[in-house]
Design a protein that fits this description.
- The N terminus is likely disordered.
- Helix 9 packs across helix 10.
- A hairpin with a 2-residue loop joins strand 23 and strand 24.
- This protein is mainly beta.
- This is TonB-dependent transporter Oar-like beta-barrel domain-containing protein.
- InterPro entries: CarboxyPept-like_regulatory (IPR008969), Oar-like_b-barrel (IPR057601), Plug_dom_sf (IPR037066).
Length: 1205
């Protein structure tokens, strides 16, 4: 902390002695040089800036270099008047955009000052001042473009490299929200500021409330090398400005209506009932002319919807037919009020308040039947002041906001309208996850709180040709809440493959399958011992500080050079407040030689981890760049490079905290009982080997879900009766209840992720009102948090021969064979079909692995041998580097990613561009990109969501390939036309090429024994990439018929061969090659797919609107009634998700012959090497999704009526 305070004092001194520009966060600016006809600068010229809407005026004088800068300015229309001795007066009509330095370089004409020259700079101007790559979505675009749900983030896709994402893909609490991915990074960390107030959700990502278009004046989206004043983010930043009052009363009222019976397309052949009513209004005007102004409004979405039941494995089609729809009602309310005051001495004050209430039924992608209810309440206020003193400008902002979320299970409220397998016959609630999602949502109940108290100061000082900038910002953040995962219901992992179907079972009955595993929650929901928000725990507080200094040097009227340095810090995001656990804190029953007294416990996993987690205070990000606009300033060459730091969401903090806290509190935890094993470790309870009625777990875990559920629910009830809501010893502490299992926690080294951004490009005004931009953008992100098992559980090199012999002997005995681990006993077990384990077939690798011939991650649930009452010699055969501890997953700053793109934008805004066209506003963008990452997390939003693992545990950056967010080609366009005689037409479209997915080996039948079948590189991770491929290979290296060539090559060269784990047991003399092959302990052949397999789909969507303003000016100036209609996805182009093997993942498992059959005719639908038929397509069809997010959904028609005044 002393180091932090020292840095803070140094930066504060630098800020108070240095200089800056306050344009990027709180509005825009006008800056430039005044020259005479020869190009010489004109010092002492008077420059007056007039806000046309409010009559607010600012006057400055150019310095010795003829330079001036005025800001921050509220976005809108302005006139710039320049006068000087011996020159004619010049009046320029221009526009100020959010986050943009409007070009203010003008050439004066010799003559009398009594003469005035008037010039219109136009709405579109070449940016001759700034080095970064950004774009502004204007009020005209927001008003005219057909945006479903009026969500401004949808319009952001007009910028290249921007992809709209459903907030529900980040977290269940974000159902009904949208997010935007920028420059190849998921939208979880895209920073969103509204009037300078940060409204980013710090707990899970994206925004804390939807900002509707009616409240917004315009917004800027930074795509590369943002201004040095920008907030903490290594990706994009969205700067939104709300509307304000003017000297004229103005506003609107609107009503939009959609209904499935009116111009909407069917979904998978069924008419899904749907109706949306969206209405509201805004009004602004003067309270005191030229002084005090108001603006405010309200809008509401009331949506009734039944979603089509899609997404289940086709084998469960009878269930979908019986329950074809799932209720998904949605409401969203937003209200805003704003005051602006032009005070004395040119001071501008403003204050704004918002209140948002959002309510939704959703599934978090667990479609169709795992429904929950989500409700969010968000109040927020912000205020500030902007003023100028001499050559200094000052801008202050202060704000407060609170996000409160409550999430509850929705299946009970929906009653018999959906399929729900729960009931007394199953011993209680059962949640199915996998091939069919049904039953109570495992994420409920939970509640989330977040508060953010913010303050920032931005200032500038203009001296000579330099605009020095400086600033400081501070946030006091707090996140809290609870989440009782797996607690209300028995979480059941269902993979509906033939190998899991019990003998004589009905394949269409999900309860007739053996579960891959069950998860038993302890009924607690706290992730922190610190009380807050009225709860006994769950609080995660943090300070955010930032400061910057910079200089924009107008080296000549044509050349601008920029340099700056930003410092930022987020405290305690990696639990830096906690001391590292010591061996003395380990339960005596778990202690082992070498771990005693003050020896750091984490060093037992890997040296260097046993110190307090590093708090990075020295996050300094320099940036440099240039902007060269020769001659008439209609061409701009720009380039920039900089370092930009990233934050970490609070979910990472909480998820990684409980295992390091020794305090007494009811912490969340769970145990996992895996198919083929004979015990389950329940944190805080102990190891369970039988149900309360005495039935062995080894029997239960090989029964159908229908048979096993009552027993597993009974175990769960007994578990929760002991630990639920009991504020005793933390059941999740690594040294006791968690059994020395480090399950993604921070330790020792930690560094803030950061990106190195580079851009270079050209912008050219090719004709009046037409500007073309072409930029190369590079973003290399380093120190991404990756969970790495530093103990290397399951690695082939860690084979413990004694433990392996014990596992083999236990297996042969279970099959009635004598001789322990001898070759004769193994041969006996392999041939013994008359057994009680699985009558009719002899022992296989799953049986040996279930007795311990596996990693401790699979065999012991990641816990140590001692926690399970075993010794190293009787524990897992592949226990890791240190067999005395469990799995060692630590979050380490070792990941990396890269983004390279060529981005092109064409903008046109003209009056009378063609006969019959009164005006037009068109933008076309194209993005050619490549996104690569080493993060093995399969979800496209998870780059900065700590916990993701790589594809290789020994070398996490060994496999770097395409990200699931990768769309090589992205074309977006939008525009509006005002046609002669009144008709207005508008359109917006997006066409993206197919995303990439990784091809992995099949582990659908369960994790047990997979070290011998799918761990091809011997690092202990299973379900490896298909040999010869890299992440994201499908749709790039492998396409179409190339899939079968890959499969045939694998079957010829790899199938039937031994993995490193298999080679290890053979080398140790435990198995002969023939025995291991007979036990199926080899890589399995992959089923051959169809000649034309399923291709990952491209995104195609085109929206169109038309309206006709009816002018009513005779009643009131500016009054008009505008009826209209919008059609979303006009041509009803079908869009689909990827075929992923396991729903919800960004990898495609190629199912093997053992789990299906020799070819695609016997492969279940939903796999790339399975049928590519209509059933597969319907299951993957994109529907309306949650809230108003329907990117690529079926066609809907909206009828609109708007009153403008």
């Amino acid at each position: 902390m002393k180091r932090f305070l020292s840095i803070l004092m140094i930066l504060f001194a630098a800020v108070t002695l240095s200089y800056g520009q306050a344009t990027s966060q709180n509005g825009g600016s006008i800056q430039g040089s005044i020259t005479d006809p020869s190009g010489a600068t004109v010092p002492g010229a008077t420059v007056t800036i007039l806000d046309v809407g409010t009559a607010s005026e600012k006057t400055v004088t150019t310095d010795k270099a003829g330079y001036y800068s005025v800001g921050p300015l509220t976005p809108g229309s302005y006139t710039v008047t320049v006068s000087g001795s011996g020159f004619e007066k010049l009046t320029v009509t221009t526009v100020v955009r959010t986050g943009t330095a409007t070009p203010g370089s003008f050439k004066l004409t010799l003559g009398s000052s009594a003469e005035t020259v008037e010039v219109n700079a136009g709405e579109l101007q070449v940016n001759t001042e700034q080095i970064g790559v950004s774009g502004v979505i204007t009020r005209e675009q927001i008003d005219s473009l057909p945006v479903n749900g009026r969500n401004i983030l949808d319009a952001a896709q007009l910028q290249p490299g921007v992809v709209l994402q459903s907030g529900q893909s980040f977290d269940p609490t974000k159902a009904g929200y949208s997010a935007i991915s920028v420059s190849g990074v998921g939208g979880r960390t895209t920073r969103i500021l509204l009037d300078g107030q940060d409204i980013t959700d710090e707990t899970v990502g994206t925004t804390i409330y939807n900002v509707p278009s009616g409240a917004v004046q315009e917004f800027q989206l930074n795509r590369s090398t943002q201004d040095v004043s920008g907030s903490v983010t290594s990706t994009g930043q969205v700067l939104v400005s709300t509307q304000s009052g003017t000297n004229k009363i103005h506003g609107n009222a609107f009503y939009n209506f959609q209904d499935a019976r009116a111009g909407a397309a069917d979904i998978a052949g069924a008419t899904a009932p749907f109706q949306r009513n969206q209405f509201g209004g805004y009004v602004g005007g003067p309270i005191i002319k030229d002084k005090l102004f108001f603006f405010g409004g309200y809008e509401r979405i009331l949506q009734h919807e039944l979603d089509a039941a899609l997404g289940a494995a086709p084998v469960f089609q009878p269930i979908l037919t019986q329950y074809p729809f799932v209720p998904a009602p949605f409401t969203d309310n937003f209200s805003e009020a704003r005051l602006d005051y032009n005070g004395p001495k040119g001071i501008h004050f403003f204050a704004r308040g918002v209140y948002s209430v959002n309510s939704d039924f959703a599934t978090f992608g667990l479609a169709p039947y795992q429904v929950y209810e989500n409700r969010d309440n968000v109040p927020g206020v912000v205020g500030g002041a902007d003023f100028t003193t001499g050559h200094f400008t000052h801008s202050f902002r202060g704000g407060w906001e609170k996000f409160h979320n409550l999430l509850e299970d929705g299946t009970a409220a929906l009653g018999n309208s959906i399929y729900n397998p729960s009931g007394p016959a199953l011993g209680g609630n059962v949640t199915l996850y996998g091939s069919l999602f049904a039953g109570p949502n495992y994420l409920a109940p939970q509640g989330t709180f977040q508060t953010d108290k913010q303050f920032r100061y931005d200032g500038t000082w203009t001296k000579g040709a330099h605009t020095f900038k400086f600033g400081f910002d501070m946030n006091r953040l707090a996140s809290g809440g609870f989440a009782e995962f797996y607690g209300e219901s028995l979480f059941t992992r269902l993979n509906a493959v033939p190998g899991n179907l019990v003998a004589g079972g009905n394949a269409a009955d999900p309860l007739a399958y053996i579960a891959n595993y069950y998860r038993l929650g302890n009924g607690n929901g706290l992730f922190s011992e610190r009380p807050g928000f009225g709860l006994p725990g769950g609080l995660s507080p943090s300070w955010r500080f930032g400061a910057y200094i910079g200089d924009t040097w107008k080296a000549s009227p044509s050349l601008t050079l920029t340099g700056g340095l930003r410092w930022s810090v987020d405290t305690d995001r990696a639990n830096q407040d906690l001391a590292t656990p010591l061996c003395s804190s380990v339960d005596p029953s778990l202690q082992f030689p070498g771990c005693t007294g003050n020896t750091p416990l984490f060093d037992q996993y890997q040296q260097g981890l046993g110190v307090r987690t590093h708090q990075p205070y020295a996050n300094f990000g320099p940036q440099f760049g240039f902007n060269f606009s020769p001659g008439d300033h209609k061409t701009s060459l720009r380039g920039g490079i900089g370092i930009f730091y990233e934050s970490s969401v609070f979910n990472n903090t909480g998820n990684a905290r409980t295992e390091s806290v020794q305090s007494d509190f009811p912490a969340f935890n769970y145990g996992q009982a895996t198919k083929g094993t004979n015990s389950v470790a329940l944190p805080g309870f102990g190891v369970v080997t039988a149900a309360p009625d005495g039935t062995p777990l080894s029997t239960i875990l090989n029964e159908s879900i229908r048979q096993a559920a009552p027993e597993m629910n009974a175990i769960k009830a007994e578990y929760q009766a002991k630990v639920k809501n009991v504020a005793g010893t933390n059941p999740s502490y690594i040294g006791s209840g968690n059994g020395l299992f480090a399950n993604s926690i921070y330790g020792g080294p930690y560094k803030s992720p950061y990106s190195i951004q580079f851009n270079g490009g050209i912008q050219r005004e090719v004709a009046k009102g037409i500007v073309v931009s072409v930029d190369y953008v590079h973003n290399a992100t380093l120190k991404i948090p990756i969970s790495q098992d530093v103990n290397h559980s399951g690695a082939a090199r860690t084979l413990n021969v004694s433990a392996a012999q014990n596992a083999i002997a236990a297996t042969t005995a279970a099959f009635g064979c004598s001789g322990g681990a001898s070759q004769a006993a193994i041969n006996c077990a392999l041939a013994q079909t008359n057994n009680s384990v699985h009558p009719g077939t002899g022992a296989n690798i799953t049986d040996f692995a279930g007795a311990g011939l596996d990693s401790d991650s699979n065999y012991l649930g990641g816990t140590s041998a001692s926690y399970n009452g075993l010794t190293v010699a009787t524990g897992a055969a592949f226990p890791g580097t240190n067999p005395n501890v469990g799995t060692g997953l630590f979050i380490l700053p070792i990941g990396r990613s890269g983004y390279d793109a060529l981005q092109a934008v064409v903008q046109q805004q003209k009056s009378h561009p063609a006969p019959g066209i009164v005006s037009s506003n068109i933008q076309i963008s194209y993005n050619l990109s490549r996104i690569v990452t080493s993060n093995g997390s399969t979800a496209p939003d998870d780059q900065f969501f700590a916990g993701g693992q790589s594809f290789n545990n020994d070398d996490p950056n060994r496999y770097i390939g395409r990200s699931p967010l990768d769309h090589s080609n992205e074309l977006s366009f939008g525009g509006s036309l005002a046609v002669k005689y009144g008709l207005n037409l508008a359109m917006i479209g997006h066409f993206f090429s197919a995303p990439a997915v990784s091809l992995t080996l099949d582990q659908t039948a369960g994790a047990t024994g997979q070290l011998f079948q799918t761990d091809v590189d011997g690092d202990g991770t299973i379900g490896d990439l298909v040999p010869g491929t890299i992440p994201g290979a499908y749709e790039h290296q492998i396409k179409g018929a190339g899939l079968n060539r890959l499969i045939n090559n694998y079957n010829a060269t790899s199938a039937g061969s031994f993995t490193p784990a298999g080679q290890a047991v053979i080398a140790a003399g435990l198995f002969t090659p023939g025995q291991l092959r007979a036990a199926q302990g080899v890589q399995q052949a992959i089923a051959v797919g169809p000649d034309k397999p399923w291709n990952n789909p491209a995104l195609r969507t085109f929206d169109l609107s038309a309206n006709y303003p009816i002018r009513l000016g005779r009643f009131h100036e500016g009054l008009s009634l505008v009826p209209g209609v919008a059609i979303y996805n006009v041509f009803n182009m079908s869009n689909f998700g990827s075929i992923e093997g396991i729903p919800g993942n960004g990898t495609a498992q190629l199912i093997n012959q053992a789990n299906s059959g020799p070819n695609f005719n016997s492969v279940p639908n939903g796999y790339l090497n399975g049928p590519a038929d209509e059933t597969t397509a319907n299951a993957a069809r994109t529907t309306r999704n949650s809230g108003t997010f329907d990117q690529g959904g079926p066609r809907t028609t909206e009828f609109q009526l708007k009153l403008n005044f």
